[in-house]
Amino acid sequence: MNFGLQGKVALITGGAGGIGSAAARMFAQQGVAVALFDRDGEGAEHVASGLRGEGASALGGAMDVRDFDAFALAVERTEREFDGIDFVVSVAGGGTRQTLSTLSIDDWHAVVDLNLTGPFNAIKSAAPALRRRGGGAIVTVGSLAGLRMSMNNGVSYTAAKAGVLGLTRHAAYELGRDNIRVNAVLPGPVLTPQMKAKISAETLERVPRELPLGRWVQPEEVAAPILFFCSAMSNACTGTHVIIDSGLHVGATGPRDEYDRTRDRT
Ligand SMILES: NC(=O)c1ccc[n+]([C@@H]2O[C@H](COP(=O)([O-])OP(=O)(O)OC[C@H]3O[C@@H](n4cnc5c(N)ncnc54)[C@H](O)[C@@H]3O)[C@@H](O)[C@H]2O)c1
What we know:
- 46% of the residues lie in helices and 14% in strands.
- With 266 residues, it is α/β, with parallel strands linked by helices.
- Strands 3-2-1-4-5-6-7 form a seven-stranded parallel beta sheet, sandwiched between helices.
- Strand 1, helix 1 and strand 2 form a beta-alpha-beta unit.
- Nicotinamide-adenine-dinucleotide binds next to helix 1 and helix 6.
């Protein structure tokens, strides 16, 4: 598939992780220069050097998305090395498993800072660079949890991911006249290598049974709508989102085999 992105430049946070590295790979395959930043700077550089080995333009570096000044430096470096920025993809995120009673105030701030202040820093620090380019696209990575609730992470994650949707809408309004579109992708259960390493064999096998499509989402299937939101194919879309969840959001509960058994399917 050709997204028509050849020669563009994308700054991606969380570039060492499952979805961030899949997005980087897909952008690079489309001829986009990628700047990958991650708290795990070595991991980001590892992904970038792999892409350079395949002929792509890529750089990797360490950056904490919670730190606005560090973000501004990452934007500066990307502009300097690649002559501008067209796309910003805010992927870095994650949560903790505490409940309301066990979550400390510090943990609350840590999760909200990562998942909500991070994308805010991305938008605020990169918008001037996109403006200098005459426009561009920003994609935030939220979660289906932002519309419902997280079963894997705590209340701080659910609240922060809900906030990402408000941030995306409001920024879309303010930046629309600068020809900068801001949209969100909301993944459901994505089987990244990191996810596979941390879940039990029982979870690996149970989750697909609960999904209409009967399978986990692959990281590349989140990357594709990210590229869609950066391409001319979505030129009239801003302030909106797409859910990529194997159908989890339809809200079905109960065993699938019983549903099928008790219905006439002819
Ligand atoms: N995997 C899923 O099932 C799933 C579902 C819904 C939403 N998401 C969202 O997708 C995004 C990516 O998830 P993933 O599955 O690729 O996770 P991942 O853990 O593989 O990658 C996340 C990356 O973010 C980086 N990171 C963490 N804190 C950071 C910080 N302060 N500054 C910079 N980088 C930081 C990590 O080092 C890691 O490389 C996250 O926002 C996550 O909430 C994932």
